[in-house]
């Protein structure tokens, strides 16, 4: 059963990102503050949930949380500052969108940069331990998936509706066949035998 990091009533935000390992599309982060006493038996690390369960959880999280924010960082910025910095920037922007300022931030993973003067804690596999990080992981994943579904309509040959921009065999074959788009991350190794940025 997931729990809150602080048992005392405290505005504690959990934050997580989705799409860090993708070849195309944004990296997306969410931040969520849950009320004291919040429980949900379905909520878990978004990677362990089915597409259907994530879609069911999203409106529940949005309606029952104290506050939430979601932010995309797009490929041009990812290429400029690298994916780690872009992931942290996305989390900062998601926290900025919270209507309530958190007193503490817990972050999935092991890397973060201080946000203003709010204390934080990095927690490896935190999305499988704490409810607010799990909730953030669900929002980040569902918002990013929805965005990739829209991009799929523009470039259906990459099948982003299914692979969401991740480096599947099908996605790499499409890059080989059709080349790259404005939504691809040029700083990433888009093909296994790629040298530099020559595509």
TrEMBL record:
It is found in: Cytoplasm. CDD domains: RNase_HII_bacteria_HII_like (cd07182). SUPFAM superfamilies: Ribonuclease H-like. Its cofactor is Mg(2+); Mn(2+). The keyword Magnesium does not apply. Its main location: cytoplasm. A divalent metal cation binds at residues 16-17, 108. InterPro entries: RNase_HII, RNase_HII/HIII, RNase_HII/HIII_dom, RNaseH-like_sf, RNaseH_sf. Its EC number is 3.1.26.4. Residues 10-199 form the RNase H type-2 domain. The keyword Iron-sulfur does not apply. Manganese or magnesium. Binds 1 divalent metal ion per monomer in the absence of substrate. May bind a second metal ion after substrate binding. It catalyses: Endonucleolytic cleavage to 5'-phosphomonoester. PANTHER family: RIBONUCLEASE H2 SUBUNIT A, RIBONUCLEASE HII. Belongs to the RNase HII family. HAMAP family: RNase_HII_B. NCBIfam families: PRK00015.1-3. This is Ribonuclease HII. The gene is rnhB.
């Amino acid at each position: 059963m997931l729990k809150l990091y602080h048992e005392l009533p405290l505005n504690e935000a959990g934050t997580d990102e989705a799409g860090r390992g993708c070849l195309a599309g944004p990296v997306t982060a969410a931040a969520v503050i849950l009320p004291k006493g919040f429980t949900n038996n379905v909520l878990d690390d978004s990677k362990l949930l089915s597409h259907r369960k994530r879609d069911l959880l999203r409106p529940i999280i949005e309606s029952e949380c104290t506050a939430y924010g979601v932010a995309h960082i797009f490929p041009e910025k990812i290429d400029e500052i690298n994916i780690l910095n872009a992931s942290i920037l996305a989390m900062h922007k998601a926290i900025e969108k919270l209507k309530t300022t958190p007193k503490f931030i817990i972050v999935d993973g092991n890397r973060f940069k201080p946000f203003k003067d709010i204390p934080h804690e990095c927690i490896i596999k935190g999305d499988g331990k704490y409810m607010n990080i799990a909730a953030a992981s669900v929002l980040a994943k569902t918002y990013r998936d929805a965005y990739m579904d829209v991009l799929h309509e523009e470039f259906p040959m990459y099948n982003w509706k299914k692979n969401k921009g991740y480096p599947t065999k099908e996605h790499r074959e499409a890059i080989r066949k059709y080349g790259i788009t404005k939504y691809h991350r040029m700083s990433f190794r888009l093909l296994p035998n790629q040298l530099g940025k020559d595509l």
